[in-house]
Amino acid sequence: MLRGIYTAAVGMMARQRQQEIISNNLANVNTAGFKFDRLYFRNTMDAASLINGDPQNAPVEEFRTDFSQGRLYKTGSLLDFAIEGDGFFVVEGPNGPLYTRNGHFIINDSRELLTANGLPVMGENGPIVLPDGDFSVNHRGEILNQDNEVINRFVVAQFGDPKAALMKVGNNLYSQRGNTPEPEMVEAPVRQGYLESANVNIIEQMVEMIIVLRDFTNNQKIIQAQDDSLRRAVNDLGRI
Q1: Which of 148, 151, 152, 172 would suit a FRET pair with 61, their CA atoms being 20 to 30 Å apart?
Q2: What is the pTM of this model?
């Protein structure tokens, strides 16, 4: 009887975590370059050991980020950029390079190209500083001034297995995990005036949310039924 309570409780814990991930996916459906997460569960042979044993032994095996490309859409802004295919913009973080697919950038008074949260965007010649006057970015990611002179070029980092190499650190940025191969700097097509939409499938996520809620409720009912049975058993024993 207690095993049934443990098993249902572990199921509720897992579904609660899954609900948090789905909610985050849906909250970022309009975030440029966002990649959705998916949870994977361990096969729970002994639910009681998960609750009473190692506190780090959780019912969720891991969650992984799906790096499939989202749809590119036109914005017309000179400071919006999208990478076609694999690769990430490289950003100068406080503790080393960070990576993002969100090409919605801004400039400061020094005309430095920055992410929305103020981190410098890197080019082959260091942080990208836009020229005064008109500028353009060609398909090769080269930044040209009004005289069509190349002044810098976007650095695009490509990982062999981004699921294994990268982890989310917030603000739509990724850092590289330790002991993973360094990225290759590649020539990837960059489109100016475009952004990449989030790769979240709203219908799929909503259906998954309904299933999660149903399973959570069912496990809750199982615990209530098991608790009622246990209470009756204790009361019946007390009358003997």
Answers
A1: 172
A2: 0.81
